[in-house]
Amino acid sequence: MSESEQQSGHVPDGHAAEPPLCVLLVDAAPTVAESLSAALDAVDRPVELVVERTTDDALDRLRSTELHCVVAGHDEGGVDGLSLLNTVRDTGYEVPFVLFPAAGSERLASRAISAGVTDYVSRSGEGSYADLAERVATLAGKSRPGAAIRGPEGAVREMYEVVSDRQRSFERKIDALLEVGQEVLGTDYATLSHVRGDEYVFEAVRAPDDTIEVGDTLPLSATSCERVVTTERTLVVEDIGTDPELSQRMGYTDWGISCYLGAPVFADEEVYGTFCFYDDTPRRREFAPWQVTVVDLMGRWVSYELERQRTKERLGALDDLNQVSREVTASVVEQSSREEIERTVCETLVDSEAYALAWVAEASVGGDATVRAAASGDGFLADAGDGSFEGVTVDTLADTGGDDPEPERLGPTDRALRTGEMVVVDDAYDRPGETAWRVRPREHEFRSVAAVPIRHDETLYAVLTVYAERPSAFSGEEGAVVRHLGEMVGHAIAATDRKRAQLRDEVVELEFRIEGLLSKYGVPPTDEPVRFDRVVSLDEDFLLFGGAPESERGTVEALVERTPQFEDLTVESRDGGGMRFQLHVSEASVFTTATALGGRLTAATVDDDALRLVVELPLNVDAKEVSRRVTEAAPSATVLAKRQTTRREPSAGGGRPAALDELTEKQRNALETAYRAGFFEWPRERTGESIASALEVSPPTFHQHLRIAQGKVFDTVFDERAGDGG
């Protein structure tokens, strides 16, 4: 049993709730303990003094007690404080250590400094005890409770307790390991970093101030970690000022980082980052070999966990891709349109959380790519303005001044469009990218990209581009499944096109008569017919177009004013005493029911006080449901006729114009709204800005949709004429 004793120091006023500082005194003379205890009573901080008589007992105390400071005497025939100091430092304990020799000398002081002593006080009477007490209280007050008192066994034990705790998340385990490392090494700073190209990103931070925060970035070349990354080995530097190369870096010259111990972290057999500890003062002694081993073990565990997480993410992504495949198949069975299939693919990929952004683009005039469908998570497409992504043009030559670039300078989407082959980028930071919506990998944490051709036989429809926050997300089996997904979407589009061609001209026509339409709202009957001839579907409401004699302007205005669903009437007079009008319909009505369900309005005429309504429905739309909704909106409605017929829309071949089949819904809406609003008349009756406002999109988006729609229509018309010999 050790000859130890415990002497409680005085608790000053105002410090009763403050935990006492624990100070170990190692000295064989009882009078030293009594004098120091009395001196500690006078300091402005509660201190608990623990006394051991031998160095062996002192080392046992170090291993079992959280200490703030050690005071050791040095006396021939008594305690060898210098030997104890060497043992403490060699073992890796960084607790403040004060040597208090019975007879001091310059030689002893020099040897103590070399051994890593924190302070040195010569014993020269009662005054020296007061000086010692003040210094001890100051040093102990700055020491973190329990900091740096663990030896190798304790450090490894704490590491195991952290990593085996199933209740802690990965992030909490990282923070706990950083704290253990700080205490083992006695450093103020501890970080987990991630290297992105030439950038150094702080992913986890423990620091005494807020000068470093999670998410901060630095040039990798400014840090000592760069050497760890390039050599893929642990770096140990007790005094960076003595390293000719590291001492020239900004980390030392500007931030004062003076000692460093860091291990590489690996993922997918590449350096992910570093797990490192550093301080702004040089170390007096070398890092002990066991301390380096502890940091190595921490780095290896982090590497293992990152690899395990990525494997789990890959398996989850494969499950998600299988779900996407099932939904694409269901879309074909349900006779969905090409637009719905493309939208389903993008939305399902992003909803899976395995991917951050997905979009489908097709080649357009000028060599650019036009986005047909897109979906993203967490606001990645916030720069798209009004959120209308379809029709946005990707300037794929933006980074090359418009010249035809070399293949390696192209973005993945453009390369896939040009070559018809799948393009995979394992690290998007090192690749030029598309400029759509100013989407840039560095801004949005994208790590890998796959551009997958959507094709069937020799036809390349478009390219599906998928972004993931994981590096190398599309290598191995996941890449093969994504490639197969592109093929499946191509088959689905081809099947949909075949079905659409078969059903293109065959429709079901429903004719309704609704009595009392005007009198219901207190509007006088018409003297001449008022017709409603087209409905354009917007995101949440509709545009309704019509025409009437100028003499019925008052009737139209009164109907719009008194009908709750109608608003924002615009009237344009025409030559010959007629007028055209446009209005917003904010919710379902008899005019918009068929359009909302996939049909279209072909004729609607108000004559006297009755409405004659004719709608066309594709064969796959439930006519009974349309009838039910019309009668629900207008209880007086009666069905006059139901017949299967051909479309009323004329064309050179007698069926639906092929040019319109090439347009997306929003492109057709832009073209038809512009046409019916008089945008193509001379002089122009409506501006592009007013039409964009009616369509609830920005003017640039409207003009983008309109330009692409015009180009497709002209392409089809002129191609047909060339084929006919015209």
TrEMBL record:
Q: Does the keyword Transferase apply?
A: yes
Which spans of this chain does the record mark as coiled coil? 493-520
Q: What is the protein name stated in its UniProt record?
A: GAF domain-containing protein
UniProt cross-references to Pfam families, sorted A to Z: BAT, GAF, GAF_2, HTH_10
GO MF terms on file? kinase activity
Q: Which organism is it from?
A: Halobium salinum
What taxonomic classification does the UniProt entry list for its organism? Archaea, Methanobacteriati, Methanobacteriota, Stenosarchaea group, Halobacteria
Keyword Cytoplasm appears in the UniProt entry:
no
Q: Where is the Response regulatory domain?
A: 22-138
The record's Gene3D superfamilies line, in alphabetical order, gives:
3.30.450.40, 3.40.50.2300
